[in-house]
Amino acid sequence: MNSPLQRHVFFLALAFMLTSGCVTGRLSQFRNFANAGASYEQASQAVLMQAGTAAIEADSLIAIQGRSSLTTPEERRRYILESDQELRKRLSLLDKIAQHGKLLQCYFETLAELADPHAPPELETEAGGLYDAIIQVSPGLKNSNFGSAKIQDKIPQATDFGVAVFRVKALESELKSRAQAIERELALQEAAFRAIVDMMTADLTASLQLHETQDVINPFATATTLSTGWVDRRQDILKARVAAESMRCVVDAIGQLRENFKALAGNTLSVSALRKTIASVHSIKDFKEAIQKVSH
Amino acid sequence: MDSADLQASLLDQLNRLIVKMTSPEWDVTVQSMPDKQQKQAQKQLLLLQQSRRIFSNAQLEEIAADLTANEPAIVTGQKAVQASVDSFATAETVLKTASAVLKTLAKVVPLA
Q1: What is the ipTM of this complex?
Q2: What is the pTM of this model?
């Protein structure tokens, strides 16, 4: 190692090891983030689906219970038609949130591929196309109303964050031009979930309570013999009622994912921060599973 | 409170009342009522649900002035709902509160 040639070869090898290590590390960071995003996306889509189901279910069970108090067919017809109209508006908003979330996930997948130094150049165009699709959907979502104020009014404030220098120039250029805007789109997802969470919790609680009365309490009080599945049904409903209280975990998860994205762009995303997000995503999955057991 | 807070408060009142009036405990209370009162309670629940749906889809800009004009009633409603979701509240108190909230709501948003 004394000759200049040996030293030159050694430093070249070291530089290669370090840079390839960095690239691998960065690649896995982007891949891990995309995976966390995909898990979040999958879980949140199921929650949105559940929100729609809970809204329809609660409304239907209440309508069945109060049907006899609507005395004429005309009164009943008007009630259910109005109800359907309002529920359609709700479902349309849930659909907008889901569509926006799916596009964001596709964008993160593309970003993870773009972190690969051997990524094909078409990926840059693909990322741009996905970004365009996201910003086409977002005004409709921002201007939507749900429960209280406009979703736009619930968007968390923007804070400045930097974009690090990356060896893969396509990735760096993509992040430099769009990271701030993408962070705002994640904030929009967070605002949308924040806006719907109270209404969703009330719908879900109402629907579970009505199921508890119908499937657990009334049979126990009046049936000659209880069905074999009565204990399981009781267990599922009671567990789901507790889970319904933790619906805010969706808001926590998307908030953490947004923070992870800022750190990812600044090349400071830690394993522990990502792990925290994954734990929140698991809470969504637990919530979703508990609820799904009750609604058929 | 600004109009957004008033809207959120009114929706919260409706949500709490819906949760109260769909509870198994409430069902037991309603079952013990005479037929006529039972029907009234069921109708009240339907009206609450219908109003909640309409109100949750309402645009704040369109109802902001009416919300502000009815601020005292909304604030009173908030306290009354808090008291009526308590497990010791009587059926009469709950129904009276629901009726008062619906009355306030009707001044803010067209319900039928």
Answers
A1: 0.93
A2: 0.85
